[in-house]
Specification:
Metallo-beta-lactamase, Chain A; single chain; six-stranded mixed beta sheet; 14 strands; 294 residues
Length: 294
Amino acid sequence: MKNELVNLSQKAEITPFFDQQTNTVSYVVKDPGSISCAVIDSVLDIDYAAGRLTYEHADEIIAFVKNRDLKLEWLIETHVHADHLSAAPYIQSQLGGKIGIGENITIVQETFGKVFNEGTEFQRDGSQFDALFKDGDTYKIGDLEAFVIHTPGHTPACMTHVIGDAAFVGDTLFMPDGGTARADFPGGDAGELYDSIQKILSLPDEMRLFMCHDYAPGDREFAWETTVAQEKADNIHVGKGTSREEFIKLREARDATLAVPRLILPSLQVNMRAGEVPRDKQGNQVLKVPINAI
């Protein structure tokens, strides 16, 4: 754990953007001392039945950045999402910035390159992204210090981004009453997920944690911010000292009851390409539906 890199005195300015269609939370993270910012886990709108892409969610973020005269430096993907499409290249075309993801994107590309029968023109080396993060890598948003923690289990490429006094946990943890993310996708592993969560919970108790999703259990209001202390005390899957063996049993039993995410097929094809929609030989945007492959 890179706790020596934690700097709680740097208070990141965080603005959430909640997409109720996919229960995803995107964030604009601003350096309090400059105009520099980052966007984390953006969403591209899709009407899957109609085969139509639109940009309402991304345009809201773009307008926010432009109206405040901010400088976008990073577009961060915490992992290859299976439940929404990334709008990173669209936002990049409007605002600039570099698109970054964990270096194990190459494992995801190799796995799903086979599922979608991608040809040799589909590069499986992560070159679609501007930056591939390794565990412990550091970067800056203006003067705001950030570092990454490799937190696999949900997918092999999952990374938690610690930015000042805030950590963006992707699909490892949910709010305490939501528990944890599934670990049954190809390359997922419940034991690895438990170990990754322990890395997050070893951060300082006062560290703010920001979720990638919230499903409002019990019909409460949607929420996406908590703390390490609150997760350790109250998380229904890993709180109060749940053992690794207990967690694996619980997680695997729960995963066996879960349906395949509605947007998994378009999401994986787009997100493993850094948000670019695949094209056919004529240059038309197309999505495949492999049969009995997921």
